[in-house]
Structures are given as C-alpha cells and as structure tokens.
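Quick one, probably user error.
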C-alpha cells in the first residue's frame, strides 16, 4: 500500500500532467498523445508519474507494461479474496 508521501508524489506528478496539457489547450488529446508528435514536456510529465506509481507499488521502472499489469492483477486478486 502506498504511503502518504508516495500518494502525495503521485498527486503532484498527475497534476504535472494536467498542467502540461494546459500549455497545449489548442491541441486535442488525439494530437497530444500521438506517439510521433507528443510534446516532449508531456512525455516527461508522464514518465515522472509512471516512476512515482511504480515506486509506490515497489515495481522496477524497467518492468514491462505487461509485467506491471500482471502484477497489478495478482494484487487485485488477493484483495478481492480478502473481501469474499
């Protein structure tokens, strides 16, 4: 479970994404998230957010997206087993 400090870091980096997107208010999300034309500042903001989330869950930033999703699913399955 993420600590309060880790949660604050995630909130800060998420706000960084929103603030950066505001710099490009005339662009659509489709334009902003085109892999070929994504503004470097937005990419950097997402990388910072990804790192904060990965750290909060104890994942390596070198972990693949597929491995990350698999680990999150394992965590989810354990969580719902406790509820049932």
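Nope, works fine. Designed sequence:
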């Amino acid at each position: 479970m993420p600590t309060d400090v880790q949660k604050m870091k995630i909130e800060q980096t998420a706000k960084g994404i929103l603030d950066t997107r505001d710099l490009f208010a005339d662009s659509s999300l489709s334009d902003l998230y085109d892999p070929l034309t994504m503004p470097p500042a937005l990419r950097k903001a997402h990388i910072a957010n990804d790192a904060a989330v990965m750290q909060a869950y104890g994942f390596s930033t070198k972990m693949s997206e597929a491995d990350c999703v698999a680990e999150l699913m394992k965590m989810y399955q354990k969580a719902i087993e406790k509820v049932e």
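The mean pLDDT is 93.
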